[in-house]
Amino acid sequence: MNLTEGPFPDRSLGAAESARPSRQVTASVGPGPREAGQDQRGARHEPRPADEGRSAPLPADHTQAILETTKEVGAVLKASGLPFALVGGVAAYAHGIPVRLQHDTDFAVRREDAELATRALRERGIRIVDPPEDWLVKARAGGEEIDLIFALAGRPVTTELLSRAQTLPVDSVHMPVLAPSDLMTCRLLALSEHHCDFGTLLPMARGLRERIDWARVREETGGAPMAMAFLYLLELLDVLPRGGPSASPTGPTT
């Protein structure tokens, strides 16, 4: 998931989301009359191979596989005691936005905690991949990608940012999730001339508008042309009041 801009590669939170099943169809298929190895339509499939350290392969459904991987990594990071927060498309999902998950699951950690977080994942049997970028660590589990990110939209992950995270359930596992205002700010700052997909941002803006401190979002994204254009679009669509910086009618919530 693309979270950086400027000197960092374009990894916007919404850049890689595609037409995968939405939240309404992400439940795992439980025991039933279908034969083993069949999906909900009766088509046969091969289960995803299990990684070393896993007790069972991931579900064949890609969206649910991402959620299972998210829960596993979240549980490992919780047990480590390190501060972290879920970010990216899965974070929007945790906030109740019907995003479509495809590529990976993203976690924000402080740079100084990266080594301990990586060690905890490796001990779980999750494969660590050292990327050329210096602002994240990549991992893989069951064919799904995991990003441990130290900089969101070019800004370092800080203790203050992580302290604003909200504990929310991702399926059955509760974990810290980046606060709505911070999530929107990061996504707006990640927009550029090379990636400017407002379509993926509109559902999140509409769904979270009463939980976002829009005045703070405007202040933190001030001067970013794509962010300014998107906020103006929200005014034209009556998602936000027209006429300047303002929070939602019910007051800001971060």
TrEMBL record:
Residues 1-59 are annotated as: Disordered. Residues 36-54 have a biased composition (Basic and acidic residues). InterPro entries: NT_sf (IPR043519), NTP_transf_5 (IPR039498). It holds the Pfam family NTP_transf_5. This is Nucleotidyltransferase family protein. It comes from Streptomyces narbonensis.
